[in-house]
Amino acid sequence: MAILVNADTKVLIQGMTGRAGTFYADQTMRYGTNVVAGVRPGRGATRHLGLPIYDTVKDAVRETGANASLVIVPAPKAADAIIEAIEAGIGTIVCVTERVPQHDMGRVKRALQGSKTVLIGPNSQGILTPGQCKIGVMPTKDATAGGVGIVSRSASLTSEILARCSAARLGQSTTVGVGGDALHGVGFVECLKLFRDDPETEAVVLIGEIGGREEEKAAEYLCGTDYGKPVIALVVGRHAPEGRRMGHAGTLSVLGALSAEHKISRLKSAGVLVAKNADHVVDTVLTALDRK
Known about the structure:
Layout lengths: L10 E4 L4 H13 L3 E5 L6 E3 L2 E4 L2 H8 L3 E4 L3 H13 L4 E4 L6 H11 L5 E3 L5 E4 L3 E4 L8 E8 L2 H13 L4 E6 L10 H9 L6 E7 L4 H10 L7 E6 L23 H10 L3 E2 L6 H11 L1
Parallel strand pairs: 1-2, 1-5, 2-4, 5-6, 6-7, 10-11, 10-12, 12-13, 13-14
Antiparallel strand pairs: 3-4, 8-9, 8-11
Helix pairs in contact: 3-4, 7-8
């Protein structure tokens, strides 16, 4: 099984006719994802890459039954595109757009309240259920199906850990990139809950970093529940200078966010097995599964 997306997921792509939209739509379709339509205001009743284009998400959902969306829209309009998809009843939205203004994300967070939509991103690599569905820009070459769930804040480390797991015959149930921005949709806790309820996910790998509070929230959640599955974590940024932006907004270690060492300590106290570095993740997963 998997979380959030599978072979039956019907995907539409907002911004499909642009240069980036065309490139990633083609990659997504080549992987075998069930892409059913594109959305581009003013281009309705046309076709692109062999698929129908609609003026609005509502029209696309009504005509195709789409239940997931990939948002590849420039940053100034990305929030409007996400909110349009929420209002149309889309169940899973992936936004890969970088530099979405934070005040715009405030509007998105309000629109999500009371909805049944799960937002992944923005500034996300996306979500991948190997052999079934890819929504986003996550590489698929090394992905294999299996029982390890991965949720990550770092795009580059996601690719590395996924490849190492596959090389060790540790296939993945689903991999989720939660996004690198300070304000984003689904986080570690929400993914942990979904993986807990997935009977075929045997272990979960969290890939964390400095900044934000995802790791602390995960530790708090795990301390308060009998999770029933091993959780392995990698937290990077132990040697990053305080107060300096390291790559993206989510890694800015200010405003009360704890250092990597403090995050590691919190996770360990919650029963999480913490790998020393990327080289040790696979061995830690194997050890955890042996203990189970």
